[in-house]
Design goal:
The chain has 158 residues and is mainly alpha-helical. It has 5 helices and no strands. It starts with 15 loop residues before the first helix and ends with a helix.
Length: 158
């Protein structure tokens, strides 16, 4: 089965507006999410723990983003759609994961707010419709559980 991750040809350079949406906004969201985690941890546990927490968040976000890119490839193949350029898709997905997790950690009962933020960012950043975002999220959640199960199985056999 061919995973049809649609990457448009790069014939003309990105305009300033496109470059801002492709890289600027996701970078701001990623940094904001890391700062929220860092500030929250520093207030309760100190600067050293905050730096370690931000590193752990960045590592887990990278791993989740890799799983998310595979989920995007599967979703694109199923729906015959695309998620844009691969390098900006990686940054966008990492930013969405980090900022929504940071909001969820900051506001204890913010589940519905985080859910709307997550879907809103998916639709806005990847220019997909809500149904495609829901299908991507289901594929992504299934793959997360599969990877988590494999990691737990691997560590339980050690």
């Amino acid at each position: 089965m061919k995973l049809n991750y649609e990457t448009p040809p790069r014939s003309i350079p990105l305009s300033t507006e496109d470059a801002t949406k492709e890289f600027g906004v996701p970078l701001i969201l990623l940094v904001a999410g890391l700062l929220i985690y860092g500030a929250r941890t520093m207030c309760s546990h100190g600067a050293t723990t905050a730096a370690m927490a931000m590193g752990i968040v960045l590592l887990t976000a990278t791993l989740e983003t890799l799983v998310g890119i595979v989920a995007a490839c599967v979703t694109a193949g199923i729906l015959k759609t695309g998620f844009g350029y691969l390098r900006s898709a990686f940054l966008k997905l990492a930013a969405i994961i980090v900022i929504t997790d940071a909001i969820a950690s900051l506001l204890p009962m913010a589940g519905i707010c985080v859910l709307f933020t997550y879907f809103g960012l998916l639709v806005w950043q990847f220019e997909i419709d809500f149904g495609e975002a829901v299908i991507f999220s289901m594929v992504f959640a299934l793959m997360r559980w599969l990877v988590l199960g494999l990691v737990v199985a691997w560590f339980s056999n050690r």
